[in-house]
């Protein structure tokens, strides 16, 4: 009788052992026939499907290489990369937010793309220079832009009409935007004139920076060694938003998400949202370039992802390079952008017939394309996440009316200086 | 059993102990070491900086606020979920549909905290959320729950209680089931029944159970993260930033692995302290029970 | 008689009242999961009027949920078995034996319950990688094969089992393992059910560690699959709710089935110190 339970025990143990190790064995077996490259990213939903389609094409055109996209939620990709770097189990390919690049470059684990692609100049030929600030580290090209996007003004045409505003003449200046928000908020029923992002974190910083650039206050100086926002102009920019919230009451501090539900008139958001709004929004929406202050200059924030390869075995390195070259080529990028509503990373993509046709099909994108040349890059330094965090924490109370604009910016200035090396 | 059989005991403990060494002890010590460095999680170099991380934490206003927030959260969630769980368990004794009720109350315990956080966030939405819409029906202007520093913490506390009632209920149900009916019969003869019986018989007899629910409640709520992360991400203005969120942000968003590890160790030490105090109290309570 | 009805009615009233608060999110979840996407934020919110089953189909096909389910169940079963066995063995030792360092080890074990999870994630990942387990289901299972909580519960229950049984068994020539698994454990079934349930629940809802430890989608567990519906590029509410409903149901059914054993397990000796 005891032997029966022994048998059961051993069969379970063997089954377990097999299961535990097989999932780990599979890639090793595949290696002898095929090079498998894991490609970590956070492109989900439609973007994920677009990527899957392109990857399938690459795989079929490149027998011997199998690229395997693996998607993680945006907030979790970075911890995963940290863990993989710490334990030496990095993926061959990854695409990450440009804001993380400085730290990833500093890890020393990225392949030198310039060396492999015939020199930095050749590899980055007509790529927009601002994007390359995230790709080059100590003279070496360690990543390439995989996508880019910027921020523009989304507005609810239905609410515009209801408030007596012309839905085809969206605001072009700060004052016009403020007036439109006020008019819409008067519709009542909890309708917000506009949404302003006031939560702690990069979201706040990245949404506020265009205001600073437009008015001429700037964020950090050219050498990224000191903050420049604690000036009269900076205060004007912050006061503008604070007044919309606390004086006009056409926006609410801490509120974000009403626009998706058709309950806010305007919001600043990225090009990637265009497709989603077209499919899911219960209202007619429009986009326009960011309104600028009188006497200010057009400016918007640049987002996007960079693609990179972590150093591995020789054949994996070579295969990864091949994929990166293919993925960043004009033809593929044009098709990629057409499916995802990301912006062109290089001039040859902007003028590509596929892209031109897409612009016609997706009118919501026009504003973003027009703004691309005014898109500014955030500081590509390793301390940026801490700077952004400190900056947003200092500004948040101002939006709630708990501290004055002057106090908030002074506190932000001091906090940022503390973090800067 | 004499200690001659000690080696048998060690053999029995061995599997658990081995796993403990590899997956708890070693990582714990490693993180202690990291707490004394300024490591950013990616750089191969880990620079030793002594007690700086700890010192800076105590000088950091955000850290102090976080301790306060965590204590408030733990206090209310533990106490209220315990009391509510007790009341529910009491009412579920010998009642129709008890199986249905028990399953209903326990469902939050088995729901993925991520999904629960998302749904509660929408329920608390100031304009389209169910709560404010219902208040609106009574002509009451509901507050901006998750963006108001006065209401955000109560909101996440409510969700914490929601998640825990079922567990407390089950434990109390077990305790109630093991109470001797004879005591109640004797007391009823003396005219003590209903609420009196509860006050003078049930509660005193269940003191050890209250303690267990309490302790597990505290241990559990100190680690809370998921639903707060989804609902408020620690805001507004840090009013819901519990310690585990601070840890996560420092480690995984700001690349301050050293600081994050220091926070983790301080949490551990804090809980150990609380745990010791509780155990001393427990001994007293049982002695007097 | 009327008094009895009044008492009973007020009990139900109270239970339903609190019950509504408890059920609120589920009503919202189910209702939303059945709405067509554009209607996610329009009335009604708590009772379904649309039955857009397409959401469930989409949620299941958008990602290989069947695979995620299999992984979650596989992992949960092994973790449950592991925790039950290690708890039984260790608990027996703590309850029936005296040995050097007994108190110390017990305290150290219990304090592992107080370690904040994010603290251990990165070093555990390094170990798992060194053991050659990274990105496998083994990485999810092996670190979790023991839990101090299980040992604690089991020890409490064993305490109430008279030692005469042990003596009688030994006199019949039974070895320790036979004694534990063939005599003690059958009596301790409620405690075993309790430990098993907690192990299963813990494993089922676990998110952070599987996220860090797994890279290949074919190894993902259900919580990871659900998380993928809330991306940087917008949340797909209706599908998220459909996925969540399907993820929660098995656990709820599981509880429905083991309720009685669970409560008995915690009752007799389980929680009385």
TrEMBL record, chain B:
Alphabetized Pfam families for the sequence: BPD_transp_1
Q: How does it sit in the membrane?
A: Multi-pass membrane protein
The biological process GO terms on file are: transmembrane transport
Cite the InterPro entries for this sequence: ABC_transporter_permease, MetI-like, MetI-like_sf
Mainly resides where? Answer: membrane
Q: Where in the cell is it found?
A: Cell membrane
Keywords assigned by UniProt? Cell membrane, Membrane, Transmembrane, Transmembrane helix, Transport
Q: What is this protein called?
A: ABC transmembrane type-1 domain-containing protein
List membrane-spanning regions.
12-36, 71-92, 104-123, 151-176, 197-219, 254-277
Where do the ABC transmembrane type-1 domain residues begin and end?
Answer: 67-278
User: What are its GO cellular component terms?
Assistant: plasma membrane
């Amino acid at each position: 009788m005891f032997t029966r339970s022994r048998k059961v025990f051993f069969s379970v143990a063997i089954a377990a052992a097999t299961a535990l190790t097989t999932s780990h064995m599979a890639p090793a077996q595949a290696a002898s026939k095929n090079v498998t490259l894991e490609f970590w990213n956070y492109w989900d939903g439609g973007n994920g499907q677009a990527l899957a389609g392109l990857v399938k094409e690459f795989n079929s055109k490149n027998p011997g290489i199998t690229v395997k996209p693996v998607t993680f939620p945006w907030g979790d990709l970075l911890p995963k990369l940290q863990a993989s770097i710490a334990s030496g189990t990095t993926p061959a390919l990854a695409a990450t937010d440009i804001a993380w690049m400085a730290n990833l470059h500093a890890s020393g684990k990225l392949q030198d793309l310039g060396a492999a692609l015939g020199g930095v100049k050749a590899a980055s030929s007509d790529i927009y220079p601002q994007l390359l600030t995230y790709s080059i580290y100590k003279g070496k090209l360690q990543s390439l832009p995989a996508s880019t996007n910027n921020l523009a003004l989304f507005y609810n045409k239905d609410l515009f009409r209801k408030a007596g505003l012309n839905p085809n003449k969206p605001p072009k200046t700060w004052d016009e935007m403020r007036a439109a928000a006020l008019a819409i908020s008067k519709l009542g029923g909890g309708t917000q004139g506009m949404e302003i992002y006031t939560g702690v974190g990069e979201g706040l910083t990245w949404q506020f920076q265009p205001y600073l650039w437009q008015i001429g206050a700037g964020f950090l100086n050219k050498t990224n060694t000191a903050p420049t926002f604690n000036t009269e102009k900076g205060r004007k920019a912050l006061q503008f938003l604070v007044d919309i919230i606390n004086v006009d009451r056409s926006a609410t501090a801490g509120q974000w998400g009403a626009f998706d539900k058709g309950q806010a008139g305007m919001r600043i958001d990225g090009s990637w949202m265009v497709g989603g709004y077209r499919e899911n929004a219960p209202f007619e929406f429009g986009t326009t370039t960011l309104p600028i202050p009188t006497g200010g200059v057009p400016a918007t924030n640049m987002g996007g992802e960079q693609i990179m390869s972590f150093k591995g075995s020789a054949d994996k390195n070579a295969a990864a390079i091949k994929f990166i070259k293919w993925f960043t080529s004009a033809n593929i990028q044009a098709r990629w952008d057409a499916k995802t509503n990301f912006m062109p990373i290089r001039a040859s993509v902007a003028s590509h017939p596929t892209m031109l046709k897409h612009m016609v099909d997706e009118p919501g994108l026009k504003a973003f394309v027009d703004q691309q040349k005014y898109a500014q890059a955030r500081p590509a330094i390793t301390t940026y996440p801490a700077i952004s965090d400190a900056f947003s924490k200092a500004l948040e109370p101002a939006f709630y009316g708990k501290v004055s604009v002057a106090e908030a910016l002074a506190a932000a200035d001091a906090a940022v200086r503390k973090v800067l090396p | 059993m004499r200690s001659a059989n000690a080696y048998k005991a060690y053999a029995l403990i061995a599997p658990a102990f081995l796993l403990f060494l590899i997956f708890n002890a070693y990582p714990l010590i490693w993180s202690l070491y990291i707490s004394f460095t300024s490591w950013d999680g990616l750089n191969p170099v880990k620079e030793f900086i002594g007690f700086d991380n700890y010192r800076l934490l105590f000088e950091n206003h955000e850290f102090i606020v976080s301790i306060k927030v965590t204590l408030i959260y733990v206090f209310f969630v533990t106490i209220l979920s315990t009391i509510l769980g007790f009341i529910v368990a009491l009412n579920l004794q010998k009642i129709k549909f008890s199986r249905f009720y028990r399953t209903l109350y326990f469902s939050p315990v088995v729901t993925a905290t991520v999904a629960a956080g998302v749904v509660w966030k929408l329920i608390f939405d100031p304009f389209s959320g169910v709560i404010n819409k219902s208040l609106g029906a009574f002509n009451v202007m509901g507050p901006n729950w998750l963006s108001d520093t006065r209401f955000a913490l109560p909101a996440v506390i409510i969700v914490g209680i929601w998640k825990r009632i079922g567990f407390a209920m089950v434990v109390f149900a077990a305790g109630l089931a093991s109470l001797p009916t004879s005591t109640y019969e004797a007391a009823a003869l003396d005219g003590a029944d209903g609420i009196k019986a509860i006050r003078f018989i049930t509660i005193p007899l269940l003191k050890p159970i209250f303690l267990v629910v309490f302790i597990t409640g505290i241990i559990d709520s100190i680690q809370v993260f998921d639903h707060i992360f989804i609902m408020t991400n620690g805001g507004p203005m840090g009013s819901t930033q519990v310690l585990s969120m601070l840890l996560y942000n420092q480690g995984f968003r700001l690349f301050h692995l050293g600081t994050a590890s220091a926070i983790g160790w301080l949490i551990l030490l804090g809980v150990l302290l609380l745990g010791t105090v509780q155990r001393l109290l427990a001994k007293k309570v049982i002695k007097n029970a | 008689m009327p008094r009895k009805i009044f008492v009973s009615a007020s009990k139900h009233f109270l239970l339903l009242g609190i019950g509504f608060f408890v059920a609120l999110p589920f009503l919202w979840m189910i209702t939303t999961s059945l709405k067509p996407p554009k209607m996610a934020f329009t009335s009604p919110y708590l009772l379904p009027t649309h039955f857009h089953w397409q959401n469930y189909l989409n949620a299941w096909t958008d990602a290989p949920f069947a695979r995620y389910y299999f992984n979650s169940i596989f992992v949960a079963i092994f973790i449950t078995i592991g925790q039950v066995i290690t708890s039984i063995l260790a608990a027996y030792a703590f309850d029936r034996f005296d040995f050097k360092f007994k108190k110390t080890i017990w305290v150290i074990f219990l304090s592992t319950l107080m370690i904040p999870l994010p603290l251990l994630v990165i070093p555990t990942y390094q170990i798992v990688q060194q053991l050659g387990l990274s990105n496998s289901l083994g990485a999810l299972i092996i670190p979790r094969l023991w839990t101090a909580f299980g040992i604690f519960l089991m020890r409490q229950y064993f305490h109430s089992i008279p030692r005469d049984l042990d003596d009688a068994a030994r006199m019949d020539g039974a070895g320790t393992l036979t004694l534990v698994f063939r005599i003690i454990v059958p009596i301790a079934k409620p405690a075993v059910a309790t430990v098993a349930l907690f192990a299963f629940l813990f494993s089922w809802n676990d998110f952070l560690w599987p996220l860090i430890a797994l890279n290949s989608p074919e190894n993902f567990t259900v919580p990871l699959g659900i998380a993928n519906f809330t991306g940087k590029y917008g949340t797909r509410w209706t599908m998220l709710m459909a996925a969540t409903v399907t993820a929660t149901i098995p656990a709820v059914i599981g509880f429905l089935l083991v309720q009685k054993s669970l409560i008995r397990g915690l009752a007799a000796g389980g929680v009385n110190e």
